[in-house]
């Protein structure tokens, strides 16, 4: 029996996840599990971070890990997320888009 996984359509950036609220070491695991589920099915994910009000280094580690494994597109980072990415110096490394439309069509 062969395990066949669907081949992602390269023109489709994948489903959009829109987490909201605070993400730290206490609650980043459920978000990672949701992201991993989407990646397992679609091979990529778009993460709308506009409603994240707080994110710490555990969130950053999760983002970097996901980015290394798949096509992760980050949309509209909130000011807190943008500041975290800037302070860590990863804002030029990650695929960050100002709008969902721009993430979908790049």
How many strand segments? 6
Going by helix content, strand content and strand pairing, the class is alpha/beta
The SSE order reads EEHEEHEHEH
C-alpha geometry: globular
The percentage of residues in β strands lies in 15-25%
Determine the oligomeric state from the structure: single chain
If you average the pLDDT, what whole number results?
89
Radius of gyration, rounded?
Answer: 14 Å
Distance between the termini: 37 Å
- Which segments are poorly predicted (pLDDT under 50) over 5 or more consecutive residues? 1-9
Would you kindly provide a written description of the structure presented here, covering whatever features stand out?
The chain has 106 residues and is an alpha/beta fold. Helix content is 41%, strand content 22%. It has four helices and six strands; from the N terminus they run ββαββαβαβα. The protein has helices at 28-42, 57-69, 79-88, 100-104, and strands at residues 16-17, 20-23, 44-48, 51-55, 71-75, 96-97. The chain has a four-stranded parallel sheet with strand order 1-3-5-6. Strands 2-4 form a two-stranded parallel ribbon. Strand 5 (71-75), helix 3 (79-88) and strand 6 (96-97) form a beta-alpha-beta unit. Helix 1 (28-42) packs parallel to helix 2. The longest helix has 15 residues, at 28-42.
């Amino acid at each position: 029996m062969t395990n066949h996984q669907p081949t992602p359509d390269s023109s489709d950036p994948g489903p959009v996840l829109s987490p909201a609220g605070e993400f730290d070491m206490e609650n980043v695991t459920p978000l990672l599990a949701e992201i991993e589920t989407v990646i397992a099915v679609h091979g990529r994910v778009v993460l709308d971070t506009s409603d994240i009000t707080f994110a710490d280094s555990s969130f950053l580690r999760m983002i970097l890990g996901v980015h290394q494994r798949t096509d992760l597109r980050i949309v509209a980072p909130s000011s807190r997320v943008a500041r975290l990415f800037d302070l860590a110096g990863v804002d030029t490394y990650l695929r960050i888009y100002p709008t969902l439309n721009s993430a979908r069509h790049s």
